[in-house]
Amino acid sequence: MIVSIKVSKEKYDEIKSFYQSFITQIDVGEYTDFIAEVNDVIITGFESKRENKTITFNGKNALEEAKIWDPEAKETVSKSKVATHFIDDQDQIGSDEVGVGDYLLPMIVVAAFVSKNQMSKIKEYGIDDSKKMTDTKILEIGPKIVKEFKFSKLTLSNEKYNEMIQKGENINSLKAKMHNRALANLHKQYINVDHIYVDQFVSPEKYYSYFDKNDEPIVKNISFKTKGESYFPCVALASVIARYSFLLEKKLLEEKLGIEVPFGASKKADEAAKKIKEKIGRADFDKLVKINFANYKESL
Asked: Which of 59, 83, 154, 291 has its CA 20 to 30 A from that of 268?
């Protein structure tokens, strides 16, 4: 059960103070101010720039907890609409990536927009952290969700990845810039959305250090959360679309090469890489793999 209430700044400060000893995270992002857990309820404070602030209560005792502060509080999203572990049911944008640890496959970053009116669709399609879903399920719903939801997808080929690494980029700087571009593409379409989430891979300070004033518009009102796909529908959706796109890339590459392309950077990837190099030659092979991986030496 999810219950959201709107409160004044004074009431917001009072609620935050009341739950101070139960806070598990604070200053999660520019708008996600705190997350507390008490009585089997996850309480999230969203301190937006608007006059009224939002407090969200999520869990089996959410309504009882919310009524402490607002006797008129009502369930805003029923159990049938959205997974109970999600802690935000408002309009939101979030991003996630795949392919970072894959020797033979590209890196893909997806940002997705979910409106509060689409929460029922999130539940209908069974959207969750993509790692909790089977590839069969993702391939089944993929063609539908890419038509149903708005998203921005960026694919970094391994050839381009190698080029950027040689120019001095690192994996986290590449991820940060791809996340920012994908988020910016959506945020300019939904300018009033102030709930923006990134599946955290570095600290906020480190994330923003990868940009300078000459970069493209930098999305700053971000809440960073480790395993964000387990907390926010938009990040979960982004993770599923990214995985769906990743599976399609894998299929296309396998059809092109006539060789099975394993995920990750295991011994199976090494074995496949050697077969691929023998088939297409060293020059084309160097464009196909991430040459800064330890696997590259095994492939030579």
From this structure: 154
Backbone angles phi, psi at 210, to 5 degrees: -80, -5
Q: What is the pLDDT of residue 48?
A: 67
As a whole number of angstroms, the distance between CA 272 and CA 17 comes to 57
Q: Is the pLDDT of residue 75 over 50?
A: yes
**pLDDT tens for each residue of 270-284:** 999 999 999 999 999
Please state the separation of Cα 51 from the chain's center in Å. 28
Give the integer Cα–Cα distance in Å for 213 and 215. 6
